[in-house]
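Example 3.2
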Amino acid sequence: MAKNRKKMRLKILKKNNWLTLILLLICSSAFAQSVENLFVKMPDFLNPTLNSQNRLELIEYYKAHQGDSILNRFGKKATMKLLDLQNQHLIIQNTPSSIFEMKVNRMINSTPYVGIIRTVCAPLCHSTVEFYDTAWNVIPLQFSMPKAIEWIDDKQIEAKGIDVEWAKKVLEISFITLTFSNENNVLSAKSNTLDFISTEDRKIIKQLVSAKDFTYKLKNKIWTREP
């Protein structure tokens, strides 16, 4: 009887140890794919303003409520603007004129991937976006940067009798800001081009331009604009 109890306790202990090991492996895998770990471990060329130690310090100070800024590798201030661990999203003000944004999204099969948006303001802001797997290989997710002319309301331009070709020429150069949504596989685009054109042209064009941001969702590896 005593031997049977001992065997039973050993079985329960082994089962508990296996469960503990599985949980540890799951937690370890989840942390490896978290935005904070990927931000710290990413190759330096993706954000040359901050080296790995800078990135670690910025994360740890922010989480410990000991400050939101550090000096970057060039002796300038870098500031954590957002660290959302629930939605796996962070935004860093690298310099007064540049922003680095990272978000971990998941494909339809739950495979995680990393989106990186870099925005430079000189002085008008313009963004670029790239996508990587968690081993930092570029992945081919198709995103077509919208042009400023796409914000023109066709009905308004017809109603006001404005020359379409003139409007296209005025909005020929585009300054577009991108940002990730907290929602999975969603990003938005905002046009800053009105700030670039002359005051006289702006008075006319402003009446024709939608103030709404564009929203894009990832569908079959293509970022598609929502109506």
